[in-house]
Amino acid sequence: MIHMTINGTEVDAPEEQTILQAARTLGIKIPTLCHHDALSPYGSCRLCIVEIKKRGRSKIVTSCNYPAEKGIEVFTDSEEVLAHRKMLMELLLARCPDVGVVREMARRMGIEKTRFPQAKHDCILCGLCVRVCDERIGASAISFVNRGVDEDVSAPFDISSESCIGCGACVRVCPTGAITMEVVQGFMKINRFKTAKQLHQCPSCKKYCATELHLGWIEDRLGPQSMAAALCTDCKRTRNAQSALMVHALQRKAPVAEGRNGVAG
Amino acid sequence: MAMRIESIQELEQLRKTLVAKTDPAKARIRICAGTGCRACGSEEVIEAFNKEIAGRGISADVEIKATGCHGFCERGTLIVLYPEGILYQTVKPEDVPEILERTVGGKEIIERLLYVDPVSGERITYEKDIPFYKSQRRSLLGMNPSIDPTEIDDYIALGGYRAAAKALTQMTPEEVIAEVKKSGLRGRGGGGFPTGVKWETCRNAPGDARYVICNADEGDPGAYMDRSLLEGNPHSVLEGMIIGAYAVGANEAYIYVRNEYPLAVENAKRAIEQAGEYGFLGADIFSSAFDLDVRIARGGGAFICGESSALMTSLEGKPGRPRAKYIHTVERGLWEQPTNLNNVETWANVPLIINNGAAWYCRTGTEGSKGTKIFSLVGKINNTGLVEVPMGMPLREIVYGIGGGVPSGKKLKAVQTGGPSGGCLPESLIDLPVDFDQLTKVGSMMGSGGMIIMDENTCMVDVARYFLNFLKDESCGKCLPCREGIKRMLEILNRICEGKGEEGDVELLTEIAHTVQETSLCALGGSAPNPLLTTLRYFGEEYTAHVRDKKCPAGICKDLIIYTIHEDKCTGCGACVKACPNGAISGKKKKPHTIELAKCIKCGICSETCRQEAIAAA
C-alpha cells in the first residue's frame, strides 16, 4: 500500500492505483472528460489536474495517469488548480460551444461564455472512441489523423473502414454525441466514419439486430453459438420466457403425474 | 571485407598502419561537402578537382577529400589546403585550375580567395587565424574537416573507436557510468538532464530488454548542429552509442533521424555497415561478450517526434504522439522497456570523456554546465555558421567575436535561443555567460542550440507570432491546452499585429500562456509560451505600442505602418517607381516623389531600393 494524503486526508492506495482512483475511494470528485474506467488513461483533456507537493516542491499533474506515490500531498482544488481548470474549460467551451456535456461542465465551473471566437466542433478529441475500438474491441478501425488544430478522428484515408465490425462501441462511449449510427436499408451506418456494415436479420421476427461482423466477432471469442444466438434480443427474451414457462409447466405437472421424485412445483 | 578488430591493441595497430599510409608532406585538399556548402555548389567544386587532377596526372601528389561541415557556412564553398592550413572561401569550380596551378604547384597564395576580416579589412591566409574559428573550442566539430564521413578509416586514423575499445575491455559498465556522471555531461537535446544519472537509472530499471536511442530528429527552425555532426562525423555518434549501450546494458539501439536529412541518413547507414565490418557492432564486440545492433529509423517530419516519448511511440509504428512521463522513459520507454535516449551531440561527447577522462572534460565549462556546446548561429549575423564554444562563453563573444556582429551596421535587438521552446533575450543581456542555468534563469533555454540573431528591424510581437504559428502546426493536438491554447494565443497576436488589439489582450495572453505552460502533457506545450512570455518580459513596450498606439515600432506589421518618402532626402531618381510592383509611386524627374497610399501594398521594395534612404515605414 502506498501512503499519501489527498486534501489533507490520509489514504493508503494499492500499487498501480492512480491519484484519481485513490481520490474516488475517499469520495472526492475530480472532473474528467477523457477518462473511462474500462480504458487505459490518456490524459488529453487535462481537466483532472491536481496539485501535488513532493519534497517541498509543487507541481500540476493529471490525476488520471499519475500513479499513487509514497508521501505526496495531493490537492484536488487548490487555487492554482481551479484557475487552470477554468481556463482549460473556457478553451474547450470555445471549441465546442454547442456540446451539452461541455456546456454543463462549464456552467458548473461558473463559465457561461468564453472570451474567444467560437468554433463549431462537436468532437472534443478525448480519444475514448479510438481507445475502446483498440483496447476493448481489438479492431483499431479508427485513429487520430492530422496534427494540432486540424486533429480529427477518422478511419484510414477517411473512407469506409475494412476493420470496423459495426459494433457501435465508439457511439456508446462518445461523451458528446459526435458519433452516431443509424440503420439504413439493412446496413448499420456510422456516419462520422463513412462506414456501413451489413446487418443481421432476426430469423424469427425479421428485425435487424447486430451486424454480421459483430456476431462473428462474438463467435470468435465465445466459440460456436447455438441457433438461438442468431435471434434478436427481443426474440431471445420471448424465447427464453416461453421455454421457462414450459419448463415451469412441466415441472408443476411432473410430481403429480409421476408421483415419485418429490420435486416441488 | 575488413578484418575484425578484437582488441584495443589490434585497433592501435590498425591506426598506426593507417597513419603510416599518409604522407604528411603531400598536398591534401579538404573540401567541405556539408549541406551548407553543397547548397553553394561544393559538389561541382569536388568534381572539378577530380577532373583537373586526373587531367594533369597529379593524383599521386595531391589528395582530395570531401568532408563534413567545417562550420563557416556563410563563406561556402570552403576548402582547406594542408599541410599549410590555408583556407580558401567562396570557391567556385572555375577557381580550381588556378588553385592547383598556383597554390598546390607554385606555393603561392591566391589573395582573391582569402577571407577578409570585415573589422580590420585584412586578408587572412590560415584557417586558425580567422576570428570565426579562433575563439571556438571545436572538440566535437574539429574532426569534421579532416575526415571523409563515408570512410571509417579516417575516423580510426584519428583515434576513433579507442574509447569504445577502452570502455568495453577495460571498464565495467558501472565504471563507465561513474565516469560520465563525474564529467557533468548534460543532455544537449534541450532538457539538460545529467546524462550519467539517466544511464544509471536506465541500467537499474527492471526490464526484459533495454534500448538505446539516438535522437536525430532535429526540428528547430534554423538549427542544424545535429545534422552536421551526423553527416560529418557519424562514427563519433555511433561510438558514443556503443559506449552508452554497454553502460546501460542494451543490445539494441536506434538512430531516429528525420528523413529530410538524406545525407545524414546515408552517412549514418554507411557508418553502421562499416563499423559492423570491423566488428565494432554485432556480436562479441572487442571480444567483450557484449553485443549491439544499431538500426536506423527515419522520421516523417513531425517536430513533435523530437520529444522523447513521441519519438518512441513513432518507433513503435504508431502516430508520434507523446505520452505522460510520470513514469520516465528510462524506466518504461520503447515497448514498455527501460530506454535511454540521448541527443546526437550528447552521444558525440561520450568518446571524448572516456578517452580523456572526466577530469579533463570538467576543465571546460561552468559550474553546472561542462564541456562545449555547438550553436547554429543564424539570422542577422555576419558569420552565419556552426560554432562550438566552451559553456559559459559570454553572448557578446559569440555574437561579435565569432559571429562578426550584425550586418549593414544595424543594431542588435535580440538573440533567440532554444528554438520555439526558447526565448528572446534583449541586447541588455549581451554579457550573459551562455550555459544551461543562466539561460533558464533569464526565461529562455539552451534547447538544442539554435541561436537566431535579430536586428533593429525585427518586430518582437511578430517574432512571438512566428513561433506560435510554427507550433500551431507542429503541436500534435493530443492535449487540450497545447492544441487550443496555442491557437488562441496566435489568434490574439494576429489581431494585435493587424491593429485590432484591445485593452486586456496582454493580460489574457499571459493567462493562457501560464495554463499552457503548467498543464500541457509534454515539453512542447510546456515550453510553447516561452517566445511569447520572454518578448512580453523584455519588449513589453512593443506590445503596448501595437495594442494602444496601433504602431509597429520596427516597421514590420503591415497593417500598422505606412511608407512615406522624405522630401528632403528624395532626389527623384525614379528607382522606386520602377521597383514598385503596384504602380503606387509617382513624381516628376529630379523632384521628390510621393506614394499613393490607396495603391501601396506595403511590400517594402521601394524602401529597399532607395539608395538615399528616403523611404521609411512608420
Short description:
With 265 residues, chain A is α+β, with helices and mostly antiparallel strands. Chain A is 32% helix and 19% strand.
How does this structure look, described?
The complex is a heterodimer of chains A (265) and B (618). With 265 residues, chain A is an alpha+beta fold. Chain A folds into 2 domains: 2-108, Roll (Ubiquitin-like (UB roll)); 128-200 and 209-223, no CATH class. Chain A is 32% helix and 19% strand. In chain A, strands 2-1-5-3-4 form a 5-stranded mixed sheet, with helices on both faces. In chain A, strand 1 (2-6) and strand 2 form a beta hairpin. In chain A, helix 2 (79-95) runs antiparallel to helix 3. The longest helix of chain A is centred in the C-terminal third of the chain and has 26 residues, at 233-258. Chain A is globular and about 75 Å long. Chain A starts with a strand and ends in a 7-residue tail after the last helix. The model of chain A is unreliable at 257-265 (pLDDT under 50). Chain B has 618 residues and is an alpha/beta fold. Chain B has 5 domains: 14-130, Glutaredoxin (3-Layer(aba) Sandwich), CATH 3.40.30; 152-362, 3-Layer(aba) Sandwich (Rossmann fold), CATH 3.40.50.11540; 372-455, Ubiquitin-like (UB roll); 460-547, de novo design (two linked rop proteins) (Up-down Bundle); 562-617, Alpha-Beta Plaits (2-Layer Sandwich), CATH 3.30.70.20. Chain B is 39% helix and 15% strand. Chain B contains 25 helices and 20 strands. Chain B has a 5-stranded mixed sheet with strand order 9-10-8-7-11, with helices on both faces. A 5-stranded mixed sheet of chain B has the order 13-12-16-14-15. In chain B, strands 2-1-3-4 form a 4-stranded mixed sheet, covered by helices on one side. In chain B, a hairpin with a 3-residue loop joins strand 3 (79-82) and strand 4. The relative contact order of chain B is 0.09. The interface between A and B is medium-sized, with 34 and 35 residues.
